[in-house]
Amino acid sequence: QIDSLQEADCFGEMGYLSKAKRSASVVAKTDVSLIQVNASTLDRAVEGTQLRFLKVFVKTLIGRLADTTSILSQTGNLN
Question: Which of 61, 19, 69 is CA-nearest to residue 40?
């Protein structure tokens, strides 16, 4: 397990942003509600909607990078 998601978290943003196929598993420990946003649909959305999604994606990536950096620095694996 790499991380645990919380309410309103997103996943899959790296694949969308990099336009590369990614393979990661997400396993729910409880009942969940999901919304799936197709990349081509998002690409056709009005710019304001695209911008809102991109802001969330970037904030998510920055948070995950900060968390990973913190973990690596605590374990001595960050040079």
Answer: 19
